[in-house]
């Protein structure tokens, strides 16, 4: 296990290096000039040159990149072109909102997807199975922005049960829970659908295994067979989906944060892209990539605890 962690950590460094290079070059190749945005329409050419020199944008691109990597290794993600705020500080200020939304969305996905998939497998070809499969297909197909807009229209505008947006209240308060309901459902619906389908397919495979038939032949109760013998083995592929989806949720909050006016990392990234704020874009992308790879490593570690037969040698 220690060897696996070290190996994945080295892979993480190489992956982040490649991602940072691609993002850095993409931002510099894309049309648009940060100096023009900062200087405004009244800036003269000499003003623009002074801004570029102050930001270091007049140096060769590769020199800028290696200076950036040198700073990242030292824990310095640079400073925002817009307000001269440290990128790390800007991200850490917004990240709790994104993390809160991602965790709440993942809980919604697990609480809906796992039971729905297991019940569908137990009651295969029943009305519940067909309904669950249909709803799962719809959940994967519906775009987040449309679902969010419809939920706001129904529950916030017409019924006035829940707030329109924002996550200003602490999550442990009633108001904080109300603020989380609509965005977490919007973001967690697609993940719930995927988890439900994976739970159903893996449970169907497990309940047909020889050891399950043996347990039934020995007189074990149906509930014991399902929840004790079958569930643990069926959950291994489901954990993979949960881990990967949580990584996607952390990086996929951009649209939902825009719809519900949540000041998270996704909204920070959108604003930075619009303003050509290179350091902020690079910092947010590195954060999302790091979290995604770390989630994969955590999933592999959980595997070893669930099924000791799994070896990483």
From TrEMBL:
Residues 95-303 form the ABC transmembrane type-1 domain. It is found in: Cell membrane. Keywords: Cell membrane, Ion transport, Membrane, Nickel, Nickel transport, Transmembrane, Transmembrane helix, Transport. It is a multi-pass membrane protein. PROSITE patterns: ABC_TM1. Pfam families: BPD_transp_1 (PF00528), BPD_transp_1_N (PF19300). The chain crosses the membrane at residues 12-30, 101-122, 134-157, 177-196, 238-260, 280-306. NCBIfam families: Opp2B (NF045470). Belongs to the binding-protein-dependent transport system permease family. OppBC subfamily. The complex is composed of two ATP-binding proteins (NikD and NikE), two transmembrane proteins (NikB and NikC) and a solute-binding protein (NikA). This is Nickel import system permease protein NikB. It comes from Halobacillus amylolyticus.
């Amino acid at each position: 296990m220690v060897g696996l962690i070290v190996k994945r950590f080295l892979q993480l460094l190489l992956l982040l290096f490649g991602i940072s290079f691609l993002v850095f070059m993409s931002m510099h190749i894309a049309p648009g000039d940060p100096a023009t945005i900062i200087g405004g329409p009244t800036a003269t050419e000499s003003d623009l040159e002074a801004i570029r020199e102050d930001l270091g944008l007049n140096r060769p691109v590769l020199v800028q990149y290696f200076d950036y990597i040198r700073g990242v290794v030292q824990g310095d993600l640079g400073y925002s072109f817009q307000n001269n705020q440290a990128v790390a500080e800007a991200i850490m200020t917004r990240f709790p909102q994104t993390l809160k939304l991602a965790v709440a969305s993942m809980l919604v996905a697990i609480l809906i997807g796992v039971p729905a998939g297991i019940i569908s497998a137990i009651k295969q070809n029943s009305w519940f199975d067909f309904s669950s499969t249909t709803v799962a297909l719809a959940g994967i197909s519906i775009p987040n922005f449309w679902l969010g807009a419809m939920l706001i229209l129904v529950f916030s505008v017409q019924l006035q049960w829940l707030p329109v947006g924002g996550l200003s209240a602490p999550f442990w308060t009633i108001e904080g829970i109300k603020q989380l309901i609509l965005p977490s459902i919007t973001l967690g619906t697609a993940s719930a659908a995927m988890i439900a389908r994976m739970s159903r397919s893996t449970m169907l495979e497990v309940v047909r295994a020889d050891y399950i038939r043996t347990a039934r032949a020995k007189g074990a109760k149906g509930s014991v067979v399902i929840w004790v013998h079958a569930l643990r083995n069926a959950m291994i592929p489901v954990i993979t989906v949960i881990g990967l989806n949580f990584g996607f949720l952390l990086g996929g909050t951009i649209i939902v944060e825009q719809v519900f006016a949540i000041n998270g990392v996704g909204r920070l990234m959108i604003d930075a892209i619009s303003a050509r704020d290179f350091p902020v874009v690079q910092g947010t992308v590195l954060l999302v990539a790091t979290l995604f790879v770390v989630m994969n490593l955590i999933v592999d570690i959980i595997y070893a605890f669930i099924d000791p037969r799994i070896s990483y040698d």
